[in-house]
Amino acid sequence: MTSLVTRCLSWIFRSQCAACGQAVPSGLPFCPPCAGALLENLVCCPRCADLLPGARAVTCLRCLRKPLPLHKIVAPWQYGGALAQAIVRMKFQRRVEIARTLAPLVGSVLVATARSIEATLIVPVPLHWSRRLWRGFDQSRLLLGHMAASTPPPCPVASALVRRRATPYQSRADAAARARNVASAIAVAPRWRSRLAGARVVLFDDVVTTGATMAACARALQAAGATQVVGVALARGGSP
Fold first, then answer.
1. Three-state secondary structure call for residue 77
2. Would the pTM of this model clear 0.85, i.e. be above it?
3. At what angle do helices 212-223 and 175-182 cross, to 10 degrees?
4. Is residue 130 domain-shared with residue 156, that is, in the same domain?
């Protein structure tokens, strides 16, 4: 009977690939095909991390003409394929356990970035309370929690930003619409306003595409007195 119960529990709680859900050996985050489909964001703009078509990492035209109001954005992976599937499953199928799998993919990058600027705060990009209530969690905070458990950051994580109004899903809008969606939607939480004076901030989100949301967050932080804002994201999508 004990053996039967053990086998049943092993089947129910068997390890699954974060992307496709197929069974994998215990401890592995992705099955071999999905692991092989992960794409590092190697050739990208050093200012905004946007994917580049060539073989050299050079500053993109947008950053030359109208740079985002951040010192830079760092994103170690490209958004697509197996990684996109895993992120979608986490966020829209409410598979919160996938955050534990994804956190190590960006944890060391987040810590290295925070140390490089001697950051005083790490701030997650916020969800509006209504979306957090519907989803049941805030993916940026969830990922940061798992990162902190395995790779402790060198400075505090602070929920210093709030969304003052709900905005449409950014994934369904083009670049101009994304910028309009978040205009004046993000603000510094009142209790953090005085504590941001002179702060060096690492701003964290799961995915960055056009950078509109990170830009809105950076402006709010800078208006409160932050002297430097660097963005870090798990994945970088191509700007539509």
1. strand
2. yes
3. 30
4. yes
